[in-house]
Amino acid sequence: MCTGKCSKCIGITLFPLAACAIVCNILLYFPNGQVLQLSEITDLVWFFHGILGAGILVILPAFMMLGAGGAGCCANRCGMLLSVVLAVLGFAGGTYCVVISSLGLMGGPLCDTGDGEYLYPFRNNTLEGNYLFNQTTWSICKEPENIILWNIILFSILLAIGAIEAILCFIQVVNGLAGFICGTCMRKRKALIMVHEQRDQHSP
C-alpha cells in the first residue's frame, strides 16, 4: 500500500478514537450523572489523560496525517517527515492515557464510605486483594452511587483507546519514515506515465 494511503487511513481512524477519549474523560467528572464538588472527584481524573493525552495530542497528528496522505499519495517528503514528528507526539499522548488509566483502575475511585468523608478505600490494597477481582468489596462505597462500576468502565475504555492510538501512531512513525526515505508514490506514478508517453512517441 502507498505510504500516503496508509497515513490517511490512520488519520481517519484516530479522529473518532480521540473524540471518544475526550467524552469519556469528561464523563469521569460526573459519576453516575451526578455533579460533585471538586474535592469529591477522583484525583487522577484531573490529569486530563483523555482530554489532553488521548484527545488533543492525537487530533493534531491526525490532521497532519490526512494532509500527508492527500489525493491518495504522500504529497511530499517534508509532509511525511512532519507527520512522523507529530505521530511521536500522538504516541506519547496515547501512552500517557494508558498509564493514567491503569493507575485509575488499580487505585480505585474516591468515594464516601458512609460517614460523609470521601477517601480512597482501595488505594493500599495488594494485587491479590484488589477490588477489581473482588466485587463483594464494592459495597464499601456508598456515594456517589455506582461510582466503582462507572470508573471501571470509563477507565477501561480510555485504557483501550490509548493503547490503540499508541499503536497506530507508532505505525505512522514507521510509515512516515518509509515515505520520507523512499519517496512518494506520486513520483513513481509520474515516472511510469512519462516512460509510457516516451514509448508511445517512439512507436510507429
Number of strands: 2
Number of helices: 5
Low-pLDDT parts are 71-75
Q: Main β-sheet: number of strands, strand sense, barrel status?
A: 2 strands, antiparallel
Q: What are the secondary-structure elements, in order, as H or E?
A: HHHEEHH
Query: What strand line-up does the widest sheet have?
Result: 1-2
- Beta-sheet strand percentage? under 5%
Computed CA radius of gyration, to the nearest angstrom: 24 Å
Coarse shape: elongated
Helix content: 55-70%
Alpha-beta classification: mainly alpha
N- and C-termini, Cα separation:
36 Å
The whole-number mean of residue pLDDT values reads 86
Your description of this structure?
With 204 residues, the protein is mostly helical. Helix content is 64%, strand content 2%. The protein has five helices and two strands, in the order αααββαα. It has helices at 3-27, 49-68, 77-107, 147-182, 185-202; strands spanning 111-112, 118-119. The protein has a two-stranded antiparallel ribbon. α1 runs antiparallel to α4 (147-182), α2 (49-68) packs antiparallel against α3 (77-107) and α3 packs antiparallel against α4. The protein is elongated. The chain starts with a helix and ends with a helix. Mean pLDDT is 86; it is low at 71-75.
